[in-house]
Write a structure and sequence with these properties.
This protein is α+β, with helices and mostly antiparallel strands and 370 residues long. Helix 1 crosses helix 7 and helix 4 runs antiparallel to helix 5. The longest helix has 17 residues. The protein starts with a helix and ends in a 5-residue tail after the last strand. It is globular, with a radius of gyration of 22 Å. The mean pLDDT is 92. The strands form 4 sheets. Strands 11-14-13-12-15-16 form a 6-stranded antiparallel β-barrel. A 4-stranded mixed sheet has the order 8-7-10-9, with no helix packed on it. The protein has a two-stranded parallel sheet with strand order 1-2.
Length: 370
């Protein structure tokens, strides 16, 4: 449980069933690492909300401190990507490494012979695929509420983690979740959805937060069309492809189109629909198939494997072809050019509603003429 309405209603639904149920709250960030004090920590309010809900539901609750695991497995690897000018998605890796990784090993009631299930407030669905030989295998699929669909954030989960997962909200729409919270007098029924990165919280701008961990590395901001230097930046991590560059005195909005780590240069183009903001070839590394031993055989064929791809949360999945390269990495060819595809982000691959896994976007290219 996070303190939000989604995980609270997930707990509510399970509390009405015949489960041996307990709640767990993950503490993933230790502010003492920065300030030497816990005063004013973001997690304190969340922990208080979790305890209030559990008291209403009459279920026991435990806090598990995973701040060390989060630092080592999510935050530090993400820092390296930010330093390289990429834009990582920490939520995807947190679900794999922490929530359905480290937490699973430390759940209350875990023994050598007993492995508890883990239910979350994610909007996602799990179904079982039955085979003539071997046990059933879990499949991650899209939920009823397509607007809140969080299968993208779960796309790096392992099969073992998915096997023990439960998603009680899979068949509900968000308004129905809030209505259930009101009906059962949960105090957080109207709590806004959380946005942003969990470890930044309310402490100010994200760029200011990162500046405390990454040394300044100044470079030029260059007009990609004219080659003219328009300004200076203090670090590639302050810019995301597709976002406005905020350059004063320009007659038109300038949008980040590229970040060159070799020359430490941010390139910009005028407007938001310039051709240089679009690409249709994505190079992918470290692809994690949820069924690790069963990647589609068509990957190695000349025609490739037909899929749908999401390279950001809540985008409409785009039809594409995926192929495996001789070096083992993957390449995705979209049927149409995609806007502002960002290296460092995750490309999640779907077969219809079935999420097959994801990988890290390392670079993009255009196969079409400008």
């Amino acid at each position: 449980m996070s303190g939000g309405v989604d995980s609270s209603v997930a707990a509510l639904m399970l509390a009405k069933e015949d489960y041996d149920l307990s709640a767990v709250y993950m503490r993933n960030w230790d502010t003492r690492d920065e300030s030497g004090s816990d005063k004013g920590c973001e997690w304190e309010k969340d922990w208080e909300d979790v305890q209030r809900v559990c008291k209403v539901l009459d279920i026991p609750v435990t806090m598990v401190d995973l701040s060390k695991e989060y630092w080592n497995k999510v935050f530090e690897p993400s820092l390296r990507l930010w330093e390289q000018g990429r834009t990582p998605n920490t939520d995807v890796w947190c679900n794999r490494e922490i929530k359905f990784g480290a937490l699973l090993e430390r759940l209350p009631g875990s023994t050598e012979h007993t492995k508890p299930w883990l239910a979350t407030g994610h909007y996602a669905r799990k179904v079982w695929s039955h085979h003539l030989t071997g046990p059933p295998r879990p499949k991650l699929v899209r939920p009823a509420d397509r607007h809140k669909d969080q299968s993208y954030y779960l796309s790096s989960i392992t099969e073992d983690g998915l096997r023990r997962a439960m998603f009680p909200l899979h068949n509900l729409q968000k308004p129905e979740v809030r209505e259930l919270a009101r009906k059962y007098n949960l105090h957080n029924a109207e709590r806004p959805d959380s946005v942003g990165i969990c470890f930044v919280g309310e402490r100010g701008k994200f760029k200011d937060f990162l500046a405390g961990y990454i040394p300044q590395n100044s470079g030029s901001i260059v007009d990609k069309i004219s080659g003219k230097v328009l300004g200076q930046h203090t670090g590639l991590w302050n810019y995301t492809i597709g976002e406005g560059a905020r350059l004063p005195g320009m007659p038109a909005r300038m949008t980040v189109s590229e970040k060159d780590t070799t020359t430490n240069t941010v390139y910009v183009v005028p407007g938001t629909t310039h051709d240089k903001l679009f690409s249709d070839v994505l190079s992918i590394t470290g692809f994690q198939w949820i069924w690790k031993d069963a990647p589609p055989p068509e990957l190695d064929s000349d025609s490739g494997y037909r899929v749908q791809v999401m390279h950001r949360y809540r985008m409409k999945a785009t039809p594409a072809t995926i192929r495996r390269l001789p070096d083992g990495n993957l390449q995705i060819w979209s049927d149409k050019p995609e806007h502002a595809v960002t290296p460092g982000q995750v490309a999640a691959v779907y077969d219809g509603d079935w999420c097959l896994g994801c990988g890290l976007i390392t670079s993009t290219a255009r196969s079409f003429p400008l």
